[in-house]
Design brief:
alpha+beta, single chain, binds iron/sulfur cluster, 2 domains, 5-stranded antiparallel sheet, Immunoglobulin-like
Length: 415
């Protein structure tokens, strides 16, 4: 069977650059005045593509993580270790470090860079700059870059930010300078998990038995392998499915007018993409799809605002003129929508539905994602029902959230 001798490597490199660019740019992008993707730890909020999720909506984040983990396992069953060779940041770090080393004239053997002292020094300066930029970018997923740069000159960043920046820079520098492929080969558990998940449908890079007879033992595939393994000896746990050996063989064979011998196939039986019509793929795919639908439905139907109400702990209840009580409340209104909105709070007796007057801050305009505390007094009959229902309404008077509270009994209040 003849196959094309087009090289795969340039596509892998383009994908890695694209992902790096995305990683660097995402923290700078905004939607509705908020970061596109950011975790606000002090505010307990997650900004995600125009949505602002608060800690109470963590169930959506957990569901999202579940979908991601299941999808990741599905991708592993279908595409094997393509994640390792094509998408994993550790591989990108290793490729970047080795690529820079080669450009500076260094040789790479057994994960070590060998060459002139000057080139190695230059390389380590580059590693430090890359580590610092990557660590700062990671931080910008927690502190908006504009905020970061405005606070930097006055050294006004929180201590945790400085510690994170220093630690991540150090770890990345060590990774670039020393660890690189060692992590994939000796420490990363994913390779071991993938070995357990490999099935007769998994995309596998190998030298098919039928092609072995055409191998000229030139060794180009072994020399090209960053993990220093010999793909001709079959599937090995160290293989990251990067396809460098495949490209090397294609180059050698192109010179002889033949197709490359090393191939990606779904399973080892050469059944093509039909191999994917397998219960081991279809069942998890259906589960991922169902959970994804559930997540989208829940996210789409989430309330646009929330209301929390509590009797004030600092201002005591008072008996007003006649037979009326004044109870002080603190309310927290959260605008979860993508636009600024004006909200109004009203109250009613939860048993009879009789409206109860509120005095104080019962109306506010909130920016998207803003959470604000409002303080007001509820005026109620001293001998009425203790249960009160509060309603938060939008500009058109439509109820968007409710909250309940219980009042202290009248005979406990002072005159
Ligand atoms: S054997 Fe081939 S695909 Fe596997 S790591 Fe080596 S070069 Fe990459
Ligand atoms: S590059 Fe191809 S021909 Fe050369 S040793 Fe590897 S498999 Fe054989």
């Amino acid at each position: 069977m003849k196959t094309s001798n087009r090289l795969i490597g340039p596509w892998r490199t383009r994908l890695q650059w694209l992902l790096c660019l995305l990683f660097l740019l995402l923290p700078w992008l905004e939607m509705n005045g908020n970061s596109l993707v950011r975790i606000d730890i002090p505010g307990l909020r997650l900004y995600l593509f125009g949505q602002v999720l608060r800690i109470e909506e963590l169930y959506l984040v957990l569901l999202g993580i579940l979908v991601f983990v299941l999808a990741f396992l599905l991708v592993t069953v279908v595409l094997g270790r393509v994640w390792c060779g094509w998408l994993c940041p550790q591989t990108t770090i290793s490729d970047l470090a080795e690529g820079l080393g080669r450009r500076l004239g260094l040789r790479i053997r057994h994960n070590r860079m060998q060459g002139s002292r000057r080139s190695r020094l230059l390389l380590h300066v580059a590693f430090l700059a890359i580590a610092l930029l990557t660590a700062a970018t990671l931080l910008w997923y927690f502190i908006a870059p504009r905020d970061f740069w405005s606070r930097l000159p006055g050294l006004d960043l929180p201590a945790a930010a400085w510690i994170t920046l220093a630690l991540v820079t150090l770890l990345l520098y060590l990774d670039l300078g020393l660890v690189r492929r060692l992590l994939c080969r000796d420490f990363c558990p994913y390779g071991r998990i993938q070995t357990a998940l490999v099935s007769p449908v998994t995309l596998t890079l190998h030298l098919p038995p039928g092609a072995r007879g055409h191998c000229i033992d030139c060794g180009a595939c072994v020399r090209a392998c960053p993990m220093e393994i010999d793909i001709r000896q079959g599937l090995q746990v160290e293989c990251i499915s990067c396809a460098r050996c495949l490209d090397a063989c294609r180059r050698v064979m192109a010179g002889r007018g033949r197709a490359g011998l090393i191939r990606y196939t779904f399973g080892l039986q050469g059944r093509g993409a039909r191999a994917l019509l397998d219960v081991r793929v279809l069942l998890p795919a259906a589960a991922v799809l169902a959970l994804l639908l559930l997540l989208v439905t829940l996210a789409h139907n989430r309330p646009v605002a929330s209301l929390k109400v509590a009797v004030s702990h600092t201002v005591p209840q008072r008996r007003l003129d006649g037979d009326r009580l004044g109870t002080f409340f603190n309310a927290w209104v959260d605008n979860r929508g993508q636009k600024a909105a004006t909200y109004t709070i009203d109250a009613a007796d939860a048993t009879t539905g009789t409206p109860l007057p509120l005095k104080g801050q019962v109306r506010a305009r909130l920016a998207p994602g803003e959470n604000r505390r409002l303080d007001f007094v509820l005026v109620s009959p001293a001998r009425g029902s203790p249960a009160v229902r509060f309603t938060l309404r939008d500009e058109s008077g439509r109820p968007v959230a409710t909250a309940g509270a219980r009042l202290a009994l009248a005979d406990k209040t002072g005159p």
